[in-house]
Design brief:
The protein has 452 residues and is an alpha/beta fold. Helix content is 44%, strand content 15%. It starts with a strand and ends with a helix. Bound molecules: pyridoxal-5'-phosphate (PLP).
């Protein structure tokens, strides 16, 4: 990956290095950074090398191919081993359906992959700088938890996580405020928008930018997408090794991705560009149906957010839409982008009612507990199979984006039982929960950042 461009820079005028894209996060024109070109593996790789690779080695190989010498091999290998230090196993529901469990990291959600890799990269790019790097992030819960876990203990970096008072669950708060050391939790007396506004105004404050080295850790950072490419390859490897697919491609392969900002789905599209033989993608959304409406009508119209039980996907203006459009924009015919996207992607909006039904059915039938987000993905896959009976034999993989325990406030009343805390929750070495409390006022945040 030699050069990256903004999604809004159609003529590729202002290219930046990978380091710059990672440290800046967002392009100066408000667009998202995308690689100029995505390299691909030849078919021998899939039949010969891939089947015997351990996940961290596979992740390294994918990263090294994408980054194409941008980072020295040994350094990259070290970072991958530190970031991707937990597995992504497939759980088979039946012969044709499985879920890819992406929740075995410290914050129990797939966001650990991206956040941990981004943290390693930022610490690496900051290694020779004489000033500490300050990361400022606003969260409604999940992102903050993954960022806190990913950056905890990294040298030369301090992190401030702003979260809205009373709007995150006690468990999420513990995952943000329980680390200590270089992770500072800031509880804001306001809502998520207040937190985001504070972060934005801090970034444009002269005083602050003169005194501290700043960056954000938000979800549109290109480094997070790269780490999410890894596990699509890992899923394919497991399917190959259990005989569920073969390299001849006779059995169709479909990934269903529970989607909010569509970063996870975009990473899957990158994996396919790299040669991963995926036949179709399905984007499951909750009632926030901007993307499924686009697939059906060709009209992309951001809408106010609707609250649902799969709240990490309550997004009314999916930020990665620009990246998806860029991947499929037809160079020739006007309007062809929509057709190109529709040919590779199906999308369904799943109601809370359907989500609950899906959870209950799988709990009773398969003795497997889905979190609400994963259930949206599975229901979307089933809807697609119903609409496309010729695809009944396709292998369907649903990305399981969160551990059910994370959403026990939804699941416990539904099932009428209490969920046991998973291993990671207790393995988080929590000394005590500690946070700062501020009103949504830039002056107070400034004091904190300059005093700390
Ligand atoms: C963030 C999140 C999603 C949505 O992922 P996107 O990449 O934003 O589409 C889905 N499920 C869970 C549990 C999440 O935390």
């Amino acid at each position: 990956m030699t050069t990256l461009y903004s999604t809004r820079d159609k003529r590729h005028t202002f290219g930046v290095s990978f380091e710059e894209a990672v440290m800046k996060g967002l392009a100066p024109d408000g667009g998202l950074f995308v690689p100029e070109y995505i390299p691909s593996f030849d078919s021998n790789f899939f039949s010969e090398a891939l089947p015997t690779m351990e996940f961290p080695d596979l992740a390294y190989t994918v990263a090294a191919t994408l980054l194409d010498g941008t980072i020295p091999e040994d350094d990259l290998d070290k970072m991958i081993k530190l970031a991707i230090n937990f597995p992504a196993p497939l759980h088979y529901l039946d012969y044709r359906h499985s879920v890819l469990e992406l929740f075995h990291g410290p914050s129990l959600a797939f966001k650990d992959f991206g956040a941990r890799f981004m943290a390693q990269l930022m610490s690496y790019f900051n290694r020779d700088k004489d000033r500490e790097l300050t990361i400022l992030v606003a969260t409604s819960g999940d992102t903050g938890a993954a960022v806190a876990a990913g950056f905890h203990g990294l040298p030369g970096i301090r992190v401030f996580v702003l979260y809205p008072e009373g709007k995150v669950s006690p468990f999420q708060e513990l995952q943000i405020a329980g680390w200590g050391d270089n992770i500072h939790a800031v509880k804001v007396a306001g809502d998520f928008d207040d937190c985001q506004r504070l972060v934005k105004s801090a970034f444009s404050d002269e005083d602050l930018s003169q005194n501290i080295r700043f960056t954000s850790a938000n979800s549109i950072n290109i480094s997070r997408l790269l780490a999410q490419v890894f596990y699509y390859f890992e899923a394919y490897k497991q399917l190959l090794n259990t005989g569920r697919v073969s390299t001849t491609g006779k059995t169709k392969l479909v990934f269903s991705v529970p989607s909010g900002n569509f970063g996870n789905l975009t990473a899957g599209l990158y994996a396919r560009q790299m040669g991963l033989p995926v036949d179709h993608f399905i984007a499951g959304t909750n009632a926030n149906a901007v993307f499924p409406v686009y697939i059906n009508s060709g009209i992309f119209k951001p809408a106010p957010t609707i609250a649902t039980i799969s709240n990490a996907m309550d997004v009314g203006n999916p930020s990665n839409f620009e990246r998806i459009q860029g991947l499929y924009s037809g160079k020739d015919v006007e309007g062809s982008t929509w057709n190109n996207i529709r040919a590779s992607l199906g999308s369904y909006s799943i109601s809370d009612e359907e989500t609950r039904r899906c959870i209950l059915e799988r709990y009773a039938g398969n003795d497997y507990l889905l979190d609400p987000h994963t259930a949206v993905g599975l229901f979307a896959l089933e809807s697609w199979k119903t609409e496309n009976p010729e695809m009944a034999n396709a292998q369907g993989v649903v990305l399981a984006t969160a551990h059910p325990y994370k959403f026990r406030e939804v699941l416990e009343p539904l099932l009428g039982t209490t969920l046991a805390s998973p291993f990671q929750a207790s393995a988080m070495q929590i000394v005590e929960e500690k946070h700062f409390s501020i009103a949504p006022d830039l002056e107070l945040l400034k004091k904190l950042l300059l005093w700390q």
